Amino acid sequence: MYPMIKIEGVRHAYKTPSGPLPVLDGLELSLNEGGFVAVVGPSGCGKSTLTKLVSGLMKPDEGKVMLHGEVVTGPRNTVGMAFQNPVMLEWRTILQNVMLPLEIVPNKLTKAEREDRARHLLALVGLTGFEDKRPSELSGGMRQRASLCRALVHKPEVLILDEPFGALDAFTREDLWQTMHKVKENEPFTGILITHDLREAIFLADQVIVLSGRPARTQYVLDVPDTGPRDLDHLYTPEAAEMLAVLRHQIEIAQGRASAEEVAE
Fold first, then answer.
1. Which domains, and CATH codes, for the chain?
2. What gap in Å lies between CA 47 and CA 223, rounded to an integer?
3. pLDDT tens digit sequence for 88-128
4. pTM > 0.85: yes or no
């Protein structure tokens, strides 16, 4: 049985006036259906490039990106994406913004069914009563909740989250972490999270992959123990502290500030 997502020996470089700029070098990743992986690493190491490859927006120079055992050769409507900047169309209401993918992705839903689907998701993330508001009338955290609903409204198999909470204040960010667990419980998906926040990574993901410095390869894989439903208290346990220490040390290695032989104190 094939994993939901499998990346084999992916190499990619961007063309620049001064020549090729290698970004990914033999990247490997495997994720089973329903899994949730967080990808961390130094700035500019190719994390966002990874999301473009999985979504089919870009093809690798070498290697393969596969979904359900099939090589990804172009964009797929089975993939949903949410970004750090929740771009919303100001001339549409929040409800209409969330429904937008259903106007683009082929489906057999009636207009009423599309609206019901969007309202269900907005209720799930706590935005009941804001359906008819314009994006400018919502806070940043509320817009990000709506963006998450928009990414999920067409029921994608894979959800890619590219630093969706990075621009939010600490309290709003932690609130959305808990919302994410609620959403995944009610709207199952296979997830890839790109983040710079190690606490976010261990709170949301089943597995954390550390990328090396550019050109990036898979440097380290941390499996996050399944301890049942997670709450913020989990981040203050000795187990969480140990995982964070390991990840911080791996990031230092990726940044060239520590060696693999050193032991994190």
1. 1-78+157-165+190-265 (3.40.50.300), 84-155 (no CATH)
2. 19
3. 999 999 999 999 999 888 888 899 999 999 999 999 999 99
4. yes
